[in-house]
């Protein structure tokens, strides 16, 4: 066990830190969260700066246009950018963390050449068309259909909880290409398509979250024609393609948020000192306990990243364990924040109130905590398949 | 950064597990627990010597002093296995005493201390010939474990560290009916270490030994927490109700999943603390490992149903030992206060 960084890793951190100190003061002001075109311009502008400085697609393989960095370097990158207060991946999330790595691993040379460079340059934005009104946690039950007509698929159905749909150029779309019956289990008839969001028949309708903002959308697909050449992987093999994608996160998906949790906690402690709440031993000890939880999340991240580095990215026990604990701690953190802030907790004009509200999504998004516990119980602990 | 066990560390952990399976199998644990009250309280000296011969107390002692010359991470891995097997005895205090003379040499003498006397009482701790228990004069004043079986008591004052003949402490101590049948406990009267100066110190030998004791105790808690996950999962696979194994029911699955989350979260911070030796990491390790051991034992008991409420099942032994350890060294309140203080300190932390 060695928590020290190598000379190369320290050098990387040093260069990155210096670059961030140079460029961050030149960034424009952050747009209002409701300003979608502004958000797109801001996030893509940041991606372009990363690209020009040689930090785009840091953990992507070099033959896909990435930098081929080790998981540890990626960890350092995420830690330093969060610490420096750099923009988050934002609108680039699906392209850089999901669709891009999928195309890099499973796409044809033509597909890689067409889609990967614009993702890395921040020229094109992707969204994720997985969930449906009746297929969220039970993703394999999706019903959006694609029927082959010559060299196009004709797609009809609807998607939901689609983040960034309002500003996306492309959607990584899972569709059903074979009916479910006794011979075909439901996850076997699924295909992965790249859907152009400006195709005729695509309608986007914003959904308003409980925070009052439009973070995600419904997408309606009415006989949308998608060229067969936009299919990544084989027909009916989309489930496997998707599982390949999910293994790319390698324990680094929430690094920024873990660093942010520690920062929020320190800010809360300062606030509590200033407003006198620090004298309440119960509250003070509660913040101390959260500090322990943050430390554990950070160490678990380092453990997972080191494991990924040793095994070449095969996810171990850590991913689901981390997701379960992290999503809970984040919510506990904002509950404690409300205690520190007292009446201000009811002032929706406070910036941190939006974070408190958004923390409620963490036990739901990317696999609910209940589904994660099923995964831990059945796949890791080997308990019999349940209902 | 490579935060994974090395091959040598894996081998050490496997070796320790195998040793304990051979020398301290479940039958031996049950003999301790089910024996008569008098015998049960006695420490098995032969076993203690076997542990010493296997190097359990010598892992951190330099090779020049007849030890193995490894570090805190290795000691943590060995103590995790001891916790897993519910090995009884003042393991932490004996390990600390075995390293004391080396530590003394490293940090320099404390004015007025008689190092020779100290070393004399601790001699043999490395080989498992001497049994040393501990008394923390500071803070919550945990009861002293295995006092009657011990040769010496490692007494930690606010600043000073002292070894006292066990008989001297015992004459002013009151036996308790210990909740843990394998850990006899004594309440002690007011004891003041002889050379104590005022004020708790964060540096110095006493502070350092306290931190190491907390971490090695956390390691045992981690071992117990992992073991109760296994016990619960095994039971959930075997026990059938309503025509299927109870492990197929989501309510039981989710209990077991949460147990794993607790054990693995505390593992990451216990191991990290062993590497960094940072006081904040150690406080987090003790806090989370205590919680994992106690709550996992309780959930394990729940998964076992009525069986879990019997003397025959080992679950209660894990729970009771976890309670004892949670009260030793850095208890929850102290750990939380230390971590809270870290939040407002100006020192830049690693995160």
UniProtKB/TrEMBL annotation, chain A:
Gene3D superfamilies: Acyl-CoA dehydrogenase/oxidase, N-terminal domain, Butyryl-CoA Dehydrogenase, subunit A, domain 2, Butyryl-CoA Dehydrogenase, subunit A, domain 3. Pfam families: Acyl-CoA_dh_1, Acyl-CoA_dh_M, Acyl-CoA_dh_N. The keyword Oxidoreductase applies. Its cofactor is FAD. The keyword Iron does not apply. Keywords: FAD, Flavoprotein, Oxidoreductase. Residues 236-381 form the Acyl-CoA dehydrogenase/oxidase C-terminal domain. Residues 127-223 form the Acyl-CoA oxidase/dehydrogenase middle domain. Residues 6-123 form the Acyl-CoA dehydrogenase/oxidase N-terminal domain. Belongs to the acyl-CoA dehydrogenase family. PANTHER family: ACYL-COA DEHYDROGENASE, ACYL-COA DEHYDROGENASE FADE29. This is Acyl-CoA dehydrogenase family protein. It comes from Streptomyces yatensis. The lineage of its organism: Bacteria, Bacillati, Actinomycetota, Actinomycetes, Kitasatosporales.
């Amino acid at each position: 066990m060695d928590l020290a960084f190598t000379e190369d890793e320290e050098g990387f951190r040093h260069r990155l830190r210096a670059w961030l100190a140079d460029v961050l003061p030149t960034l424009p002001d952050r747009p209002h969260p409701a300003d979608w075109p502004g958000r797109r311009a801001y996030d893509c502008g940041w991606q372009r700066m990363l690209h020009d400085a040689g930090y785009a697609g840091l953990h992507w393989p070099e033959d896909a246009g990435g930098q081929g960095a080790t998981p540890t370097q990626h960890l350092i990158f995420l830690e330093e950018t969060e610490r420096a207060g750099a923009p988050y991946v934002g609108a680039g999330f699906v392209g850089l963390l999901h669709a891009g790595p999928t195309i890099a691993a499973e796409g044809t040379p033509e597909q890689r050449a067409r889609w990967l460079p614009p993702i890395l340059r921040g020229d094109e934005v992707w969204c994720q068309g997985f969930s449906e009104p009746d297929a969220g946690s039970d993703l394999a039950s999706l019903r959006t259909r694609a029927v082959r007509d010559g060299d196009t698929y004709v797609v009809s159905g609807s998607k939901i909880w689609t983040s960034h749909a309002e500003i996306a150029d492309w959607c990584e779309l899972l569709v059903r290409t074979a009916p479910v019956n006794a011979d075909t289990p439901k996850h076997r008839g699924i295909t992965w398509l790249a859907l152009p969001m400006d195709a005729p028949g695509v309608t986007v309708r914003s959904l308003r979250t409980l925070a009052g903002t439009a973070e995600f959308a419904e997408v309606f697909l009415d006989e949308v024609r998608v060229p067969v050449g936009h299919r990544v992987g084989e027909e009916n093999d989309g489930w496997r393609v998707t599982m390949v994608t999910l293994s790319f996160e390698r324990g680094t998906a929430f690094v920024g948020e873990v660093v942010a949790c520690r920062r929020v906690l320190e800010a809360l402690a300062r606030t509590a000192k200033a407003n006198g709440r620090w004298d309440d031993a119960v509250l003070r000890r509660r913040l101390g306990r959260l500090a322990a939880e943050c430390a554990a999340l950070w160490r678990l991240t380092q453990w997972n990243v080191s494991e990924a580095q040793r095994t070449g990215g095969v996810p171990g026990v850590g991913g689901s364990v981390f997701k379960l604990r992290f999503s809970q701690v984040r919510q506990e953190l904002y509950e404690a924040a409300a205690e520190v802030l007292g009446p201000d907790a009811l002032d929706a004009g406070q910036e941190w109130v939006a974070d408190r509200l958004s923390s409620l999504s963490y036990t739901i998004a990317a696999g609910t905590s209940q589904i994660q516990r099923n995964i831990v119980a059945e796949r890791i602990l080997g308990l019999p398949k349940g209902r | 950064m490579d935060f994974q066990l090395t091959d040598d560390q894996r081998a050490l952990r496997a070796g320790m597990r195998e040793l304990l399976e051979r020398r301290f199998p479940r039958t031996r644990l049950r003999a301790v627990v089910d024996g008569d009250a008098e015998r049960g309280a006695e420490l098995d000296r032969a076993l203690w010597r076997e542990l010493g011969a296997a190097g359990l107390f010598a892992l951190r002692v330099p090779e020049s002093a007849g030890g193995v010359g490894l570090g805190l991470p290795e000691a943590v891995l060995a103590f995790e296995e001891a916790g897993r097997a519910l090995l009884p005895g003042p393991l932490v205090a004996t390990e600390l005493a075995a390293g004391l003379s080396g530590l003394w040499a490293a940090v320099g003498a404390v004015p007025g201390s008689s190092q020779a006397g100290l070393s004399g009482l601790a001699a043999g701790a490395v080989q498992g010939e001497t049994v040393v228990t501990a008394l923390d004069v500071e803070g919550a004043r945990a009861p002293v474990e295995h006092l009657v079986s011990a040769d010496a008591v490692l007494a930690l004052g606010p600043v000073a560290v002292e070894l006292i003949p066990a008989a001297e402490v015992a004459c002013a101590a009151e036996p308790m009916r210990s909740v843990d049948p394998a850990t006899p406990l004594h309440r002690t009267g007011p004891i003041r270490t002889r050379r104590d100066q005022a004020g708790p110190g964060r540096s110095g030998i006493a502070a350092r030994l306290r931190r190491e004791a907390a971490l090695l105790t956390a390691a045992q808690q981690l071992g117990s927490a992992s073991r109760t996950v296994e016990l619960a999962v095994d039971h959930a696979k075997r026990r059938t109700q309503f025509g299927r194994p109870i492990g197929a029911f989501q309510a039981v699955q989710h209990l077991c999943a949460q147990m794993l989350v607790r054990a693995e979260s505390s593992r990451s911070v216990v191991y990290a603390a062993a590497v960094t030796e940072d006081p904040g990491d150690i406080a987090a390790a003790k806090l989370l490992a205590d919680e994992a051991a106690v709550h996992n034992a309780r959930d394990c008991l729940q998964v076992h149903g009525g069986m879990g409420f019997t003397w025959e099942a080992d679950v209660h032994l894990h729970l009771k030992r976890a309670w004892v350890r949670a009260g030793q060294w850095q208890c929850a309140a102290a750990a939380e206060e230390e971590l809270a203080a870290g939040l407002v300190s100006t020192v830049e932390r690693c995160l």
